[in-house]
Specification:
Layout: H1 3-11, H2 20-36, H3 40-46, H4 59-106, H5 110-132, H6 136-162
Amino acid sequence: MSTLAQHRSESRPAGVASLLPFAAAVVVITIVGGLAAASSRETYAALDLPPYAPPGWVFGPVWTVLYAMIAVAGWLAWRSGGGRPAVVAWSVQLALNLAWTPLFFAADAYTLALVEIVLLLVAVAATVVVFRRTSRLAAGLMLPYLAWVAFATALNLGVVVLN
């Protein structure tokens, strides 16, 4: 092990307990987003949706898995020595993730939500690139999220066109 790699591994807590801040951040985003989307079922059901729109019940299970992967990916990137760039990239995409929900569901601002989700898509892609520098596993864990956000962007575009 190189001296730099040894220093990086020694400077990071080894235990799973160091995952807790990442998990806590994701839980907070989930709770706040859930509060902002209190009427999401009704809103989604009332929209004219594109033919590729999944049923509403799909979103809960998908986001549960994705949020777990996002937390673990952030933790792995940090533990592998990604440092400030990894934590900043992870935090920015998480904040953008949170911002989309109230725009779409609470404000019914579908066009503004589309602009915002494009920014989120770019931020998630950038996070994958930053993570890849120090942890291929962390980057890989973000890929399903990237794919889902790309799909959600297309879905948001469909909502803008049809509503």
